[in-house]
Amino acid sequence: MKNISQISQEALGNDYYAIHLIGEIDINYLPQLETTLKPITEMAQLKGIILDCKKLVFIDSKIVGFIVYLYTKLSRSNQKLIIAETNETINDIMTLVGLSTIIQFTPTFDEAVKQLNVYVTQ
Amino acid sequence: MEKQKIEFNLPANLLFSGITRCLADEIFSYVGFTKEWSSRLKLVVDELFMNAVRYGSTQDASTVHIVFIYDDKEVEFRIDDDGTGSQKTTAEELKARIAKNSNHNDVTKTSGRGLALITQIWTDKFNVEKSPYGGITLSFVKKIEKTPPPPPAIIQTVITKPPTRSTQPAVQDIKEPVATYNISLEGDIDPLSIEKLAMPVFEQVSAMAEGSRLILDFTNLQYINSTVIGHLAAWYKEIHRKKCQLVLKNTSEQIRDVLDLVGLKKVLIFQ
Questions:
Q1: ipTM
Q2: Is residue B23 part of a domain?
C-alpha cells in the first residue's frame, strides 16, 4: 500500500510559517512533525504558524496531543496558531476533544493568512 | 447476513496501523455505517491498536491478534496483546485508568484520554478483560448506524484573540453591587454532562441586572477543560457588557494556571 502522507513547511514572509499536512498523519509521523517544527518554534522573530489541513485525511490522538503542545508553547510566547481547512473527519475529532474551543480555526488557508495579517513578499 | 468473522495476526509494530485502519474502514463501510461513523470507528480501532502495540507488546517480537465479527445488525472488534510491553498492567487496572481519564476531560492532557473518551462516546459497549494470549483484550461493539452522527455535544466557542493580549479590564469598581448571586459549580465536565453544569450559570448571566455581581464557586471543581474555558469567556463577555462583575471563588492552582495560559486570568476577579 503506497503511503502518500507528507509534512512540508512554507515560509510566509519573514515571521510566519505554514505547515502543510497531507494524507494520514499518525504516530509514525510524530518525529518528523517535531523535527520540522522545532527550528521554526525556536526562531526569535516567529509570530505565528498555520497548520494547513486541506489535504489531511486522518490524525490520531498523538498528533492531537502534539497540536495541543504546540498551541501551549506558542501561546506562552504570544505567538499564534491557526488550523486551516479541516475536513469533517478531522473537525470531528478536534471538536470532540475540545480543540475548537481554544484554537482558532479558519475555513480556508487564505482566511488564515488574512487573520494573521501576513505580508508575503512576492 | 450470517455472522462473519475476520481474524488475523500482525507483528507488534505501529507501521501496520495504516493497514489496520484501511481494513477497518472497508469493513465498517461494507456493513452499512455512514462515512462519518466509519471515520469515527476507524479512529477507535487505531487507538486500540496503538494501545496494544505500545503498551502491551514488545515491538516486532510480539504479535497482536485482531478480530472483526459482523452481521447486518452490529460489528464487534477485538484486539489481544501478549502483555510483554513496557506497561505491566492488569485488565482491572487499565479499566480504572480509563474511567479516571474519561472523567478528567482535560484538553491539555492527551495521554490515554483518546482511548478513554472516544471508545466510550462512539461505541455501544467497550470491554477490557484478561487475554488468553497473556495480556489484555480490548473490544467494542457498535450497532450499525445508517444515519450520520449528531455533532459532538460541545459548544464551539472560539477565543479568537491572542491568549495573552486580553485588553478589557475587569469591572473592579463595583463597591456595593445591586445584587450578588452565588453559584457553585459541581458535577462532571465530560462532553455529555457539561451543559447540565453550565445551564444555571447561563440562565443567571442572562437575567442579571446592571451593576450586579456573580460569584462562581469552584470549591467542588478541581479542574476545567477547554469547554469550560469557552463558557467562561462567553459569560465574561456578557457580564462585562452589562457592567456586572464576575468573581471566581476557591479556584485551584491548576485552574488558575489554565486561565492564565488562555489570557482569562487577567480579566477575571478571584476570591
A1: 0.83
A2: yes
What residues contact B31, with CB distance under 8 A and at least 6 apart?
Answer: B70, B71, B72, B75, B144
Give tens-digit pLDDT for B221-235: 766 766 677 778 778
User: What pLDDT, on the 0 to 100 scale, is given for residue B28?
Assistant: 96
| C-alpha cell recorded at residue A24 | 494520514
Rounded Cα gap, residues B121 and A77, in angstroms = 35
Q: Which one-letter amino acid corresponds to residue B233?
A: A
| Per-window interface: B 95-124 vs A, CB < 8 A | 105, 107-108, 110-111, 113-115, 117-118, 121
Contact B110 A68 (CB under 8 A): yes
Residues 6+ apart with CB under 8 A from A18: A9, A10, A12, A49, A50, A51, A52, A109
- Which structural domain range is residue B11 located in? 4-143
Indicate the CATH number for domain A6-116.
3.30.750.24
Beta strands per DSSP E along B121-249: 125-130, 136-143, 180-184, 213-217, 245-249
Residue A3 contacts B where some CB pair is shorter than 8 Å: yes
How many Å apart are CA A101 and CA A95, to the nearest integer? 8
Spell out which residues of chain A touch residue B50, defining contact as CB-CB under 8 Å. Answer: 27, 60-62
Rounded CA-CA distance A104/A82 in Å is 5
Lowest-pLDDT range, A55-59, B21-25, B238-242, B257-261?
B257-261
Residue B170 lies in a domain: no
